[in-house]
Amino acid sequence: MWICVGCVDLESPEEMEEEIPVVICAAAGRMGATVAAISSIYSNTEANVLFYIVGLKTTIPHIRKWIENSKLKEIKFKVVEFNPMVLKGKIRQDASRPELLQPLNFVRFYLPLLIQKHEKVIYLDDDIIVQGDIQELYDTKLSPGHAAAFSDDCDLPSTHEIVRSVGMQNTYMGFLDYRKQAIRDLGISPSTCSFNPGVIVANMTEWKHQRITKQLEKWMQRNVEENLYSSTLGGGVATSPMLIVFHGKYSTINPMWHIRHLGWSPDTRYSEHFLQEAKLLHWNGRYKPWDYPSVHTDLWENWFIPDPSGKFKLTRPDS
Questions:
Q1: Mean pLDDT of 258-263
Q2: What global pTM score does this model have?
Q3: Residues β-bridged to residue 193
């Protein structure tokens, strides 16, 4: 299912224990996001980070060339090919938000198949930048029996005004179809606070022990059959299974390590002071910082590295 392309283990056993594995995807048309995210992480830490860059067969040569022909050539990374056949029959086609059905959106479901030798792993969406030391995020404590830590969507008062102004959903009602009996049978109140799986700190031992991947696949298949959630609701098709499987069984990430909704409106802005204090910024939503219109693009562009091949270009008002 997974093919590690050009993986070379250079570490001694002593060094391996200190490695921080960070999983991030490199999707066609969005590789500038991957590069900016990696650049921001690498520039803000002294930690021994190993990047697992996950792509499809067609995109892997491009991201490898970009890294090896830029200042990122110093990073430690492994390029891993994701086989989309693993998703066959598990995704309900939905024309309203086709971008949410891209195979790499589901990489986070399959972390143990990708990460073989690490106990603890960080997964990050590509539309983020990290302003803090990734070691802090890695040091997030997971409670016994928890396979993952996320940020609650109700956790930070400073973001509540933004959430209200853009109509962002932050409860289970925004992600699951409570008209369906299978959803009501879960016994989860629709007003329960949701969480965002764009930043995950995961314990691989617990993940495998609890068969999290199998549980997620079960709900994906039920959705194909019963349409229990859809991309017309708040979080699309990758968030909803995680909300079900991890309900009441996850630890929390410091909210400053996941300031989100920067991509939900081209008009609504956070205060500059608040953003400077933030450790991680996430442009979840339609308005990405490499496109136009979008907000707080200057913070993102600080970390962007132009594509040596010239294929990926920023969209700006004067371009």
A1: 91
A2: 0.91
A3: 171
